[in-house]
TrEMBL record:
Transmembrane segments: none annotated. It comes from the Bacteria. This is N(4)-(Beta-N-acetylglucosaminyl)-L-asparaginase. It holds the Pfam family Asparaginase_2. CDD domains: Glycosylasparaginase. It comes from Clostridium omnivorum.
Length: 318
């Protein structure tokens, strides 16, 4: 049995390529790296990789992480600039015995030494988004941070190995050097091939407060189905944050266990995700939380068409 699950519709093409790797007998590490690179390299997805939205100084700072559930190898980069495919840099770091998490200039020096591709990750389209947001903030009091969709994936190969990966440009117009949950083990991701893996997307500052990816894997280890584990973890953290702080940020989680069973939970409306298994081709679902239970529905062709039209529509600086 093999399978992949990923956050957001933007992962569909990547999961399609990753599933082909698995179908041909490839390993979970290769499949997830190829899948996430596909998302990172598509400039119209404005929260990941090339074309990702910049920080408040109009710099694109990227975070990414990779974990191997069989060896517990971990690699992560944070606030790295001017390098393509940060997921590949993170995976390379996972092969090191120490220095597995590098940030900013340190991550960039490592990437350069290892021969990774230098690339200006700030696109003209992202600049337009930036200038338009500046104007919106002044005129309409819109919060600057809207827009923070991490691509996170869990991948199981036919040999029982499970990997997890994440990649994001983080909060739109974040403070320089800000790091969210995505490259933080236990919060943005966690995986154990004897159990399963989980990955998060949403407001990193709140996701980190629950070490939520680790919590989901822990619940699966106790015998919970991935769907139960996701719902318990998301609903508990959402309630806890509201009780203690009066509100909870966006929390959306995906998980897959070592049987290829999967689960998804969210506290927002319209969270989309992609699932592919040995039996089923990649499918996009949309989920919503109704009284603590998450209901998944296959995305309609109309929804899918509108998704791409919206993201690729021409932009005009206002």
């Amino acid at each position: 049995m093999y399978g992949m699950i990923a956050t957001w519709r933007m992962a569909f093409e990547g999961v399609t390529k990753g599933r082909k790797v698995l179908e041909d007998g490839g390993c979970a590490g290769d499949a997830i790296e190829i899948a996430i690179r596909e998302v990172e390299n598509f400039e119209f997805y404005k929260s990941v990789g090339y074309g990702g939205l910049p920080n408040e100084e109009m710099e694109v700072e990227l975070d990414a992480a990779f974990m191997d559930g069989s060896t517990f190898d971990i690699g992560a980069v944070a606030a790295i600039k001017d390098f393509a495919s940060p997921i590949s840099i993170a995976r390379r770091l996972s092969k090191e015995k120490v220095n597995n998490v590098l940030v900013a200039e340190g991550a960039e020096k490592f990437a350069h030494k290892e021969g990774f591709e230098r690339k200006n990750m700030l696109t003209e389209r992202a600049k337009i988004h930036y200038y338009n947001r500046i104007k919106e903030i002044k005129e309409q009091e819109i919060k600057p941070y809207s827009g923070h969709d991490t691509v996170g994936m869990v991948c199981l190969d036919s040999n029982g190995n499970i990997t997890v990966g994440t990649s994001t440009s983080g909060l739109f117009m974040k403070k320089k050097g800000r790091v969210g949950d995505s490259p933080i083990c236990g919060s943005g991701f966690y995986v154990d091939s004897k159990v399963g893996g989980a990955s998060a997307t949403g407001l990193g500052e709140d996701l980190m407060k629950g070490c939520i990816s680790y919590e989901i894997v822990r619940l699966m280890k106790e015998g919970h189905h991935p769907q139960e584990a996701c719902e318990i973890a998301v609903n508990t953290l959402d309630a806890e944050l509201k009780e203690r702080r009066g509100e909870a940020g966006d929390l959306s989680l995906i998980a897959m266990n070592n049987k290829g069973e999967w689960g998804v939970a969210t506290n927002i409306e319209g969270f989309s995700f992609v699932v592919a298994t040995e039996i089923n081709e990649p499918v996009v679902y949309i989920t919503k939380n109704i009284n603590g239970k998450c209901i998944h529905e296959k995305a309609s062709e109309e929804w899918l068409d509108n998704y791409m039209k919206t993201r690729t529509a021409p932009l005009v600086r206002r």
